[in-house]
Amino acid sequence: MISNLDVFISGIYILGIVAVGLWASMRKAGSGGSVSGTYFLAGKTLRWPTIGLALFATNISCVHLVSLAQSGFDSGLLNGNFEWMASFTLILLALFFVPFYIKSGVATLPDFLERRYNRASRDWLTIISIFSAVIIHIAFSLLAGGIVLETLFNVNMYVSIIGITVLVGIYTILGGLSAVVITESIQTIVLVLGAVIITAACWNQMGGWSAMTAVLESNNEMSRLSMLRPAGDDSGMPWYSIFLGYPILGIWYWCADQTIVQRVLGAKDENHARAGALFCGFIKILPVFIFVLPGLFAYALAQKGVLNLESITSIDSSGAAVVNSKGIYTLMIVQLLPAGLIGIVVAALLSGIMSQVSGALNSISTLVSYDIFKRVYPETSDKKLVKVGRVSAAICLVISILLLPLLNSYESLFIGLNDVIAHIAPPITCVFLLGIFWGGASPKSAQYTLWIGSLLGIAVYIASKVYPESLIGQIPFMMTAFYLFCICVLLQVSISLIAPFEHTAESKALFWKNPFQPLTRPGWTGMGNYKVLSGLLLLIMVVLYSFF
């Protein structure tokens, strides 16, 4: 339980964010321009700092704060790969994907697929995008937040979740993308502040880095500091699975997922879109140190007896003590922080929930309005389109809440989230990569690759859960993503060679003639140039991986 002061701080924060969101929605409502364009894409006025912060806020949810700390406690820095590898993927987004998205003027990524391939590809991606937004971006985030809030406030998980979703829904559904990115920018700052506070508290209690490494060394567990593990590692994530599997997940998530890329689509111009994506890449360096590392500190503190694990420890049927590490973040908050600071960290957790949910709701409303409703009723007015988007967002919120009991069966929410992505991403990553880099990728090949690849992913997912001891069930999810991707590439290339097509004038402009073509496009001068920023980010990541 936490003090009244912390409850007051958390409450003031929630009301403040809702007020800012409503203010943003009313401010944009009074501006000129297309009603739907302003609602869904913020009137294409977003600048690079806002884009970068919004990308980070939409990505980082309560799942990350809770589950990355859990992973740090369980396995050390290993799952930090999901954060650092994202920086490489954001370089790909800035260099290769952004120019097409901005130049084509699309409102959604399914719209882009129709221009490059055909309508069937667009329809399928719309369905998958809505499905993934509901499960990955909303339901998992709500579940992680509910677990923490129930522990801290002693309020039923579903009551707290419904309360938060109603408040987020008010300003997101009314205000559109403008309200989302403004509130996300604030939430990112609060979220990072809360994470830094927890990290500093762990560092202080531990007595610094050397004290932690001394504990690990005494237990012969220095491997917990390594990001890249050898083949056969017990984690199921050896180094090669990171380099082979993560790009499949990452390219879909950062370059081809509507919820994420919608912040880029609202950019003022191509340079702001590119710089915003790269800015987010620099920010993604932080999570290893402020989300994962505290969990590792918590493990060392528990070994020293400073952190009491009794409240999250139970006895299994064999009489052995089992630690439920899902609660480690809550434990750190309660045992390591004084009154007042707890309220700030709880506000950071709420930021993670609210930013993730608001971003996903806006993308869902855009997809339903543009890619489904307007297609069926092309004469629909802007105001009607916005209304449809708002209703669809509200319905998806309800569906997400209904999915929570099922998703709660995962031992680790972060692993569960990426396990789902690993089975969704391969066909979409394949279709986007081949579509942008290979002119021979045909419409029929994309259509059947999306259909067959998605159904195969679902079949493999079900088989691995129903028959966990089978060959399929024993394959780590990162390698499963890689194998599914290889099958999808083989399928799309084969169909393209069997059934080639002649490009239209529009589709000819939607793939690079060679890999170096995007680097010839002009950018800002000086340090703001996208090539300079990409090179700097790449260098920093190589140096970091050489140390960890």
From TrEMBL:
According to its UniProt entry, this protein's organism is Anseongella ginsenosidimutans
Recorded hits in Pfam families, A to Z, give:
SSF
Keyword terms, alphabetized: Membrane, Transmembrane, Transmembrane helix
Cellular localisation? Membrane
TM spans, by residue? 6-25, 84-102, 123-149, 155-182, 189-216, 236-255, 276-301, 328-350, 391-408, 420-441, 448-468, 480-501, 530-547
> So what family is this one in?
Belongs to the sodium:solute symporter (SSF) (TC 2.A.21) family.
Q: Which GO terms describe its molecular function?
A: D-glucose:sodium symporter activity
Q: Which InterPro entries does the record associate with it?
A: Na/Glc_symporter_sf, Na/solute_symporter
Q: How does it sit in the membrane?
A: Multi-pass membrane protein
Protein name listed in UniProt: SSS family solute:Na+ symporter
Q: A GO CC term?
A: plasma membrane
Q: Which PROSITE patterns match?
A: NA_SOLUT_SYMP_3
Q: Which residues form a coiled coil?
A: none
